C-alpha cells in the first residue's frame, strides 16, 4: 500500500506514528486493503495533509467518514474526484457558498482547490470498506485525527475551525479557543439542512472575515 504524506506533517506527526495504537492501525488498514475493496485509494489516504502543509493551514473542516461508493473518496472530507456526481451534502455546501459569497456553483466537486489554499479537509476516520459506512471506525483513526486537531491547536495560531453537525461539534474540546476561532452549525446533509440548521450559516464569508482580520490571504471558495 503506497502512502505519502507531506514532509511538514511527517515531522510533526512522527511521535504519533510510533505509538503502539498507530502501528496496530496500520496493520489493520493493510489487511483490509489486501482483502477487501476500500476507499480512498492507498495513495490518497493522507491526501488532506499532502495538499495542505502543516504551517500553511488556515482553516480546518472536520468530516466523519470517507464516501464508500466507487470513485468518490479522494482523501478530503466532503470532496469527490473530478467528474463524479456531487453527493447531497456537497450540493448543499456549494449552494450555501453561492448565496454567501457569490461564487458560482462549480462543475467539479473536487475540493483540492481549497486544500491547496490552506483548508485542511479532515475526516475523523481516513479509510472505509466499500459500501459499508463506518466500517473502519474505532480502529485507531479517531485517536490519530484527534491528535492532529490537538497538534494544530497547540502549535499554530488564528485557525478557523468549521464544525458542522453533532459529531464535529464534539471536537471543540480539543481546540484552544483563546488562540483559535470555532464556527458551528448543523450538518450540510439534507436531513439537517432541510430542518433549517445549515443554510444561512455564512461560514464562508465569516471565515474570510476572520482571516482578513489577521492579515491572512482569503480563501477563494
From TrEMBL:
Picking any one GO molecular function of the record gives: uracil DNA N-glycosylase activity
Gene3D superfamilies in the record: Uracil-DNA glycosylase-like domain
Cellular component annotations (GO), alphabetically ordered: cytoplasm
Annotated family: Belongs to the uracil-DNA glycosylase (UDG) superfamily. UNG family.
Q: What chemistry does it catalyse, as a reaction equation?
A: Hydrolyzes single-stranded DNA or mismatched double-stranded DNA and polynucleotides, releasing free uracil
Q: Spell out the subcellular localization from the entry.
A: Cytoplasm
Q: Which PROSITE patterns match?
A: U_DNA_GLYCOSYLASE (PS00130)
Described by its record, this protein's role is as follows: Excises uracil residues from the DNA which can arise as a result of misincorporation of dUMP residues by DNA polymerase or due to deamination of cytosine.
Which keywords describe this protein according to UniProt? Answer: Cytoplasm, DNA damage, DNA repair, Glycosidase, Hydrolase
Principal localization?
Answer: cytoplasm
Instruction: Give me any GO biological process, just one.
Output: base-excision repair, AP site formation via deaminated base removal
Protein's recorded name:
Uracil-DNA glycosylase
Active site (UniProt):
65
Amino acid at each position: 500500500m503506497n502512502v505519502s504524506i507531506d514532509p511538514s506533517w511527517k515531522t510533526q506527526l512522527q511521535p504519533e506514528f510510533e505509538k503502539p495504537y498507530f502501528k496496530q492501525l496500520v496493520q489493520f488498514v493493510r489487511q483490509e486493503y489486501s482483502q477487501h475493496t476500500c476507499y480512498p485509494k492507498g495513495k490518497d489516504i493522507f491526501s488532506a495533509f499532502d495538499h495542505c502543509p502543516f504551517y500553511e493551514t488556515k482553516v480546518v473542516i472536520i468530516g466523519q467518514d470517507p464516501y464508500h461508493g466507487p470513485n468518490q473518496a479522494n482523501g478530503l472530507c466532503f470532496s469527490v474526484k473530478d467528474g463524479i456526481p456531487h453527493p447531497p451534502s456537497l450540493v448543499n455546501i456549494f449552494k450555501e457558498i453561492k448565496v454567501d459569497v457569490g461564487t458560482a456553483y462549480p462543475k467539479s466537486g473536487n475540493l483540492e482547490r481549497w486544500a491547496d489554499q490552506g483548508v485542511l479537509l479532515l475526516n475523523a476516520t481516513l479509510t472505509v470498506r466499500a459500501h459499508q459506512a463506518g466500517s473502519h471506525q474505532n480502529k485507531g483513526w479517531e485517536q490519530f485525527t484527534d491528535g492532529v486537531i490537538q497538534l494544530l491547536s497547540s502549535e499554530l495560531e488564528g485557525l478557523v475551525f468549521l464544525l458542522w453537525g453533532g459529531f464535529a461539534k464534539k471536537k471543540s474540546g480539543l481546540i484552544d479557543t483563546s488562540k483559535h476561532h470555532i464556527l458551528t452549525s448543523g450538518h450540510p446533509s439534507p436531513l439537517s439542512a432541510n430542518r433549517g440548521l445549515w443554510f444561512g450559516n455564512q461560514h464562508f464569508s465569516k471565515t474570510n472575515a476572520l482571516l482578513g482580520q489577521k492579515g491572512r490571504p482569503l480563501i477563494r471558495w
